[in-house]
């Protein structure tokens, strides 16, 4: 039995109304031709903060108690959750601290600080940053809002699934970036509950994919965090993972991995063929489709989950330069 239900996702959508954008779909002629079936892009990188994370953060902040609001919220982030949490907290008048590792790109750190959150850089991995988060929870009584393993966050991300099936009822396959599993878990729960025939596929990078390795062994495991163009997909799933591992295990049909060259080519494709600026973590679905890793996709929706890429890096990728990680 899962603690999150379709009713929670509908309730989240009511809370998010007026706070987040219902992002558009765009058909991709180039990807449709390559796949041999209609392919649509869900432009979630057009969300207010540049990624889907605003949905879960807003839903979670909206459900804080009076005491929790007074003490403030804290989160660990590879960038996009921090931005969503900072935005949602500022809108609600709540103090926020975001802890991140040294691997998080400077453009993401600066954007979080610009939204009024306090930023703390700790260690070389998300697990290192987690230590400071736990200290703030224990010593200062702040409320931890996980970037993924929290029922209110997952329900918020699940609202994307509602938009997908309402805007594209003929949907056969949905391809979603996979990191901690809050996004894919929420979407897959939503879609499979409404229409079990829809295929749900998660895509992660080859360099340090904690969820895929945890699925393989059947329990949460630690994976070394490595530099990758898909930096927003980095980090572990937490050894005490309660929600997302069971959701991904039970509602996701397939997981695939893409390499750095494929991610770079997908960012390049998105710009030149689709006129979209997306980050590496948001490009992995395009990468999987272009690499022929999805068999018989049918009417397909590819989620472009974020666009918060350093523009100097983006310039190099769209020029076809080799990027040293």
Summarize the structure.
With 325 residues, the chain is an alpha/beta fold. The chain has helices at residues 6-16, 29-35, 53-61, 66-71, 80-92, 106-114, 126-140, 151-167, 182-194, 210-217, 244-251, 260-274, 284-290, 311-318; strands at residues 25-27, 39-43, 73-76, 96-100, 118-121, 143-144, 173-177, 199-205, 254-258, 300-304.
Q: For this structure, what is the CATH class of the largest domain?
A: Alpha Beta
Give me the number of helical elements.
14
Total number of domains: 2
* SS-derived structural category: alpha/beta
Determine the mean pLDDT: 95
Task: Considering the chains and any ligands shown, give keywords for the structure.
four-stranded parallel β-sheet; 14 helices; six-stranded mixed β-sheet; 14% strand; 325 residues; 2 domains
Task: Describe the structure in your own words.
The chain has helices at 6-16, 29-35, 53-61, 66-71, 80-92, 106-114, 126-140, 151-167, 182-194, 210-217, 244-251, 260-274, 284-290, 311-318; strands at 25-27, 39-43, 73-76, 96-100, 118-121, 143-144, 173-177, 199-205, 254-258, 300-304. The radius of gyration is 18 Å and the shape is globular. Strand 4 (96-100), helix 6 and strand 5 (118-121) form a beta-alpha-beta unit. The protein is built from 14 helices and 10 strands. Helix 3 (53-61) packs across helix 8. With 325 residues, the protein is α/β, with parallel strands linked by helices. It has 2 domains: 6-51 and 150-318, Rossmann fold, CATH 3.40.50.1100; 54-144, Rossmann fold. It starts with 5 loop residues before the first helix and ends in a 7-residue tail after the last helix.
């Amino acid at each position: 039995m899962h603690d999150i239900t379709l009713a929670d996702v509908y309730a989240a959508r009511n809370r998010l109304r007026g706070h987040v954008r219902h992002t558009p779909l765009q058909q991709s002629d180039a990807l449709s031709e390559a796949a041999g079936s209609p392919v649509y892009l869900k432009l979630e990188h057009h969300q207010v903060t540049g990624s889907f994370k605003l949905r879960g953060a807003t839903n979670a902040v909206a459900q804080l108690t009076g005491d929790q609001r007074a003490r403030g919220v804290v989160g660990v982030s590879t960038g996009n959750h921090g931005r969503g949490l900072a935005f949602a907290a500022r809108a609600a008048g709540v103090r926020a601290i975001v802890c991140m590792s040294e691997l998080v790109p400077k453009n993401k750190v600066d954007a979080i600080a610009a939204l009024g959150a306090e930023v703390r850089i700790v260690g070389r991995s998300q697990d290192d940053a987690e230590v400071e988060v736990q200290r703030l929870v224990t010593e200062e009584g702040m409320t931890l809002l996980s970037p993924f393993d929290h029922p209110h966050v997952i329900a918020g991300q699940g609202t994307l699934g509602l938009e997908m099936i309402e805007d594209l009822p003929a949907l056969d396959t949905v391809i979603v970036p996979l990191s901690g599993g809050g996004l894919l878990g929420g979407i897959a729960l939503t879609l499979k509950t409404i229409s079990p025939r829809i295929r749900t596929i998660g895509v992660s990078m080859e360099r340090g994919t904690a969820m895929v390795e945890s699925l393989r062994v059947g329990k949460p495991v630690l994976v070394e965090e490595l530099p990758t163009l898909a930096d927003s997909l980095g980090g572990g799933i937490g050894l005490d993972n309660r929600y997302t591992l069971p959701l991904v295990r039970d509602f996701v049909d397939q997981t695939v991995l893409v390499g750095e060259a494929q991610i770079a080519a997908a960012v390049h494709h998105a710009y030149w063929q689709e006129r979209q600026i997306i980050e590496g973590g948001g490009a992995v679905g395009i990468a999987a489709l272009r690499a022929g890793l999805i068999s018989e996709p049918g009417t397909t929706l590819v989620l472009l989950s974020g666009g918060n890429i350093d523009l100097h890096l983006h310039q190099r990728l769209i020029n076809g330069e080799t990027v040293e990680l």
